[in-house]
Amino acid sequence: MASTNGTNGADVKKDFKPLGERPPLRSPYVGVPDFLSNVSNFKIIESTLREGEQFANAFFDTAKKIEIAKALDDFGVDYIELTSPAASEQSRKDCEAICKLGLKAKILTHIRCHMDDARIAVDTGVDGVDVVIGTSSFLREHSHGKDMDYIHRSAIEVIEFVKSKGIEIRFSSEDSFRSDLVDLLSIYRAVDKIGVNRVGIADTVGCAGPRQVYDLVRTLRGVVHCDIETHFHNDTGCAIANAYTALEAGATHIDTSVLGIGERNGITPLGGLMARMIVADRDYVRGKYKLEKLRDIENLVAEAVEVNIPFNNYITGFCAFTHKAGIHAKAILANPSTYEIVNPADFGLTRYVHFASRLTGWNAIKSRVDQLDLSLTDAQIKECTAKIKQLADVRSLNVDDVDSIIRQYHFNVKTGSNTPLLDAVGRNEIDAETLLKKAHANGNGNGVNEEAAKCC
Ligand SMILES: [Zn+2]
């Protein structure tokens, strides 16, 4: 028998290479490939027109629902989930109207686990029905008041009825993370056996963390053969992380809504999920979804429910791709990947290097000088940057302020003028204001390309 040396038979001396010749070490932070993971093969169940209708400000009339449904379909979501047709007469009519649009996305509606609701749902023309029932002790005691035997019986009755109509059926528990694990697995196994298309896990109160999600989804993956849908509320800020972790653990479908709107503070936002998933598998996400439409969809929904896009929104927040600190700006201008994990161009957006502050650096100002189509040496740009920083220590600056200083500085250099415009900066704010006014007045008369000045 060949002798081994404790490294799977490899000859340590022969394989040894000096440090500089070794391949780079694998980062310990790169995910381990996992045969259960679906981060490169997931589907979105978009619930703006169901969960989103539960948002405090939401009221969608038929026309708005159709507009949103078409926009989501164009974006490429796999499913569009609608409010139960049993909720109101108009909800039923809207459900029928959207089913008749002939969208590529499958249309689902979301109902209680009850035959009355199921009968109404299948008559609307939907492609599938999402059934939900509370399984936690809280819901069993304080909501529907039914025991697990009743839940089993009604689940099987509803599932068999919907299946008999030839459309998809999902069965989900509600408040899954506060339900008894044995109860949960027992009912999921029972519905899987009779051919449900998906089982659903719902963190209805937003209490779960990624580790709990991983454990539950992974356990469930070992119990059922059907697809696994997950639904995460964002009460404690984990909705995106939980969705991602669920996919890692073998979930197949993620519920989202535009901007995350929903009951209380909502669920996994569509845009936030896209941000997370494009980092995991850019080709899959770009190949499947029209990412450049994200901003329009968010604006459409934000307007419909009368909210603003948050400043720190994923991808589309006004400063999502703004780089401010000098050291960041320098690196971004050299190679954007240095400080960007997501490429704004994938979403039809552009990055912005913020240069109107005391944190700016000469590389950012150099870039601005180029945008303004001006010509200065590096030494001159450094001097000009020092003036800008000096002034920015006294008051906040905007882009026009900085542009005016640059133009005035350029004017002085090119004409040999020695206007001591900026030397006195910093004594007090009145001085600064006066200087700025003067800089604006002078800068605007120097024949600078105003269109270039707007570009950033
Ligand atoms: Zn929900």
Task: Characterise this structure.
The chain is of the alpha/beta class. The protein folds into two domains: 43-304, TIM Barrel, CATH 3.20.20.70; 322-454, no CATH class. 43% of the residues lie in helices and 11% in strands. It contains 18 helices and ten strands. It has helices spanning 12-15, 62-75, 89-99, 115-122, 137-142, 148-164, 181-193, 210-221, 239-248, 270-280, 282-288, 294-304, 326-334, 362-371, 378-392, 399-415, 429-443, 450-454, and strands spanning 43-46, 79-82, 106-112, 128-134, 168-174, 198-203, 227-232, 253-256, 322-323, 352-353. The chain has an eight-stranded parallel barrel with strand order 1-2-3-4-5-6-7-8, surrounded by seven helices. A two-stranded parallel ribbon has the order 9-10. β2 (79-82), α3 and β3 (106-112) form a beta-alpha-beta unit. It is elongated. The termini are far apart. 43% of the residues are buried. Bound molecules: zinc ion.
CATH topology of the largest domain: TIM Barrel
The class by helix and strand makeup works out as alpha/beta
**The CATH C-level class name of the largest domain:** Alpha Beta
Shape: elongated
Instruction: Outline the biggest β-sheet.
Output: 8 strands, parallel, barrel
Small-molecule binders here are: zinc ion
Could you tell me the strand content as a percent range? 5-15%
Helix content: 40-55%
Average pLDDT works out at 86
How many β-strands, per DSSP?
10
Number of helices: 18
CATH architecture type of the largest domain: Alpha-Beta Barrel
Per CATH, the superfamily of the largest domain is: Aldolase class I
Contiguous low-pLDDT stretches (5 residues minimum) are 1-16, 423-430, 443-456
Euclidean distance between termini CA atoms: 70 Å
Question: Strands of the biggest beta sheet: in what spatial order?
Answer: 1-2-3-4-5-6-7-8
